[in-house]
Automatic annotation (TrEMBL):
Active site (record annotation): E148
Obligatory cofactor(s): Fe(2+)
Encoding gene per record: def
Catalysis performed (reactions): N-terminal N-formyl-L-methionyl-[peptide] + H2O = N-terminal L-methionyl-[peptide] + formate
Physiological role: Removes the formyl group from the N-terminal Met of newly synthesized proteins. Requires at least a dipeptide for an efficient rate of reaction. N-terminal L-methionine is a prerequisite for activity but the enzyme has broad specificity at other positions.
Designated name of the protein: Peptide deformylase
Membrane-spanning parts: none
């Protein structure tokens, strides 16, 4: 089932999310719904707060990035085959020289800006079977993880912009929060009531 993606301005996007346990209600259905929702919106990542749930979980599939011919064959291969579920994750280390990349977000349609992040991370997380892993990621995979991780920390990529950039996009953000935007996927705007 495709869920509506929560738009900029909804308080759930600014809340620090809570850990979940293995017996989380209808977990398997939620997981499938999150992947369906992400693919329907042509995203590479989706965090639970973006579907209105303040829980520490996100899904990633970096396959769309694998078609970038400026990347090496190895990088393209890694991106093509990276589909992952992160539950209760904790980034324990960020390393390297910060680099800029033009980021966007399904909750903030039609806004893209350069965001600086470190290129290498170490993260501990549970997979969809609630088995623990500690892994090191770098490059675009690390970037997507950091972006989605920020969501469960109540941080949006727009929070990382300079005050000048924030002023320049203020009108766009205001329009998004009021639902004055056209998107080709389901969204829920702060002014709208929740529908079940």
């Amino acid at each position: 089932m495709i869920l509506p993606i929560v738009a900029y301005g909804d308080p759930v996007l600014k809340k620090k999310a809570l850990d979940i346990a293995k017996d989380y209600p209808a977990f398997d259905a939620l997981l499938l719904n999150m992947f369906d929702t992400m693919y329907n919106a042509f995203g590479v990542g989706l965090a639970a707060p973006q579907v209105g749930l303040s829980i520490r979980m996100f899904v990633i599939d970096t396959d769309p990035f694998s078609e970038d011919d400026t990347l090496s064959e190895e990088e393209q291969h890694d991106l093509k085959n990276f589909r992952r579920v992160f539950i209760n994750p904790k980034i324990t280390k960020e390393e390297g020289e910060e680099w800029a990349f033009n980021e966007g977000c399904l909750s903030i349609p039609d806004v893209r800006e350069d965001v600086f992040r470190k290129p290498k991370i170490t993260i501990t997380y549970l997979d969809e079977n609630f088995e623990e892993h500690t892994e090191v990621f770098d490059g675009l995979i690390a970037r997507v993880i950091q972006h989605e991780y920020d969501h469960i920390e109540g941080v949006l990529f727009t929070d990382k912009l300079s005050s000048l950039k924030k002023r320049l996009i203020k009108g766009k953000l205001s329009n998004i929060s009021k639902g004055k935007i056209t998107v080709d996927y389901r969204m829920r705007f702060p002014a709208q009531k929740k529908t079940r």
